[in-house]
Amino acid sequence: MKVKFFTVMAFLLFAVAQIEASPGFAYPQQRPTAQAQVPSPDVVLREGMTNLLKFMRQKERPDPEAVAAYIETKIAPYFDFAYMAQWAAGPAYRKMDEAQRSSMTQKVKEMLLSTLTKRLGSYKNQDVRFFRPRRVGQNEVKVRVGILQAGGYPAKIDFRFYRGKSGWKVFDVSANGNSAINFYRQHFARQARQQRPNWAYRR
Hints:
Elements: E1 2-5, H1 41-56, H2 64-75, H3 81-89, H4 98-119, E2 126-130, E3 134-137, E4 140-148, E5 156-164, E6 167-175, E7 178-179, H5 180-194
Antiparallel strand pairs: 1-2, 2-4, 3-4, 4-5, 5-6, 6-7
Helix pairs in contact: 1-2, 2-4, 3-4, 3-5
């Protein structure tokens, strides 16, 4: 089924990384309470992107401040920034205290949201196809989106979800095998080598 929406959400985390995703830390192995009615990952993805499209296609184009506010309140909750920060920090994450972990999580969130806000400034409609969700593990599902007439955008985008207490959360996005969380890890590792080892953990 084809739908129209802005696919920038798929590129909000990363530039080009050349390795496939393989998290070094397990995502939270927590399930929602029994009997809870939890929307499936593909439903979650369709809902978020459809709502984003409706917002961007208003008669009067939203200004940057309005876009940033929308992303903060409506898009950010779909992602698990704490897990992304954990992956980005690597083994050093285990030695960080709660304040340092919180600071790292906020930095990852700010990077993601600022990139998405910037990308939305060049909004264009895209034809896409949602594929059937694929279960990767007991608590992980991958939802693939195929980009049709995508121009310079990647042809295949994979959203990786895990199921936690509050439902399904996105913890990685990959474009043609290039992983967002791997890019973050490489980014912070380069910064750590260039500066003091604990640069990313300072408040």
